[in-house]
Amino acid sequence: MMKLFKTLILLFLPIFAFAQQGKTIPYKKKLPSINEQGIILMPDGKQVEIPNFNQKEVTIFFLIRHAEKDTAGGANADLNPLGRGRAEALPKMFKKIKFQGIYSTAVPRVQNTVLPLAKAKGQKIQMYDAKSQQTWIANLLQHKGKCIFIAGHSNTIPPLVNMLTNENMEQNLDDNQYGCMYIVGVRSIGDATVLKIYY
């Protein structure tokens, strides 16, 4: 009986996984919202100011890991239904923020995390190579007074924060850790402020 049960699980798992493709679980958690002055209204009603927002000599980076992934999908796994719900809710946070660019790695789950935001802003997703971040970031730092949105991975976003601040302040995120956003205001490498929020 147990052998038959295991066989049935193996048979139906691929069917279940296929059925989940394209499905979305609506994101019900109340999100923070950010206004044109860089004030974040948190879900609990508190207001948090983004340091150095709208200063002409500062580039503001919004850095996130991709949303929840399909753990059965391997290295190139896409988002699961909960992740798609989180991604579709993301534009609500940024209705009043203009981005110089919205950036993603080539991995589908990262692209699909920022796709709703890019569509809402009428912008194309720009691809980057997480293995060559130093040169690429140096180019982005030329956009003073602008906001830039970057999505990546649990082991690429914290190192990017560390590179911008020139400090070893953040460790890689746990594999099941989602919803963390770093807001980094950079005058130059090493001259930066970091605000960490959850959404």
Can you characterise this structure?
This protein is an alpha/beta fold and 199 residues long. The protein contains 5 helices and 9 strands. It has helices at residues 2-20, 81-89, 108-121, 133-140, 157-165, and strands at residues 33-34, 39-41, 47-49, 59-65, 101-104, 125-127, 147-152, 180-188, 191-198. Helix 2 packs parallel to helix 3 (108-121). The longest helix is centred in the first third of the chain and has 19 residues, at 2-20. The model is unreliable at 4-20 (pLDDT under 50).
List the main descriptive attributes of the protein structure presented here:
199 residues, alpha/beta, three-stranded antiparallel β-sheet, 5 helices
How much of the sequence lies in strands comes to: 15-25%
Helix content: 25-40%
Largest sheet at a glance?
6 strands, mixed
Q: What's the tally of helices?
A: 5
How far apart are the first and last residues' alpha carbons, in Å? Answer: 45 Å
Named at the architecture level, the CATH assignment is 3-Layer(aba) Sandwich
How large is the radius of gyration?
18 Å
The count of strands amounts to 9
Average pLDDT number: 89
Total domain modules:
1
What would you say about this model in short?
The protein is of the alpha/beta class. 30% of the residues lie in helices and 23% in strands.
Secondary structure layout:
Elements (H helix, E strand, L loop, with lengths): L1 H19 L12 E2 L4 E3 L5 E3 L9 E7 L15 H9 L11 E4 L3 H14 L3 E3 L5 H8 L6 E6 L4 H9 L14 E9 L2 E8 L1
Parallel strand pairs: 4-7, 5-6, 5-7
Antiparallel strand pairs: 1-2, 2-3, 4-8, 8-9
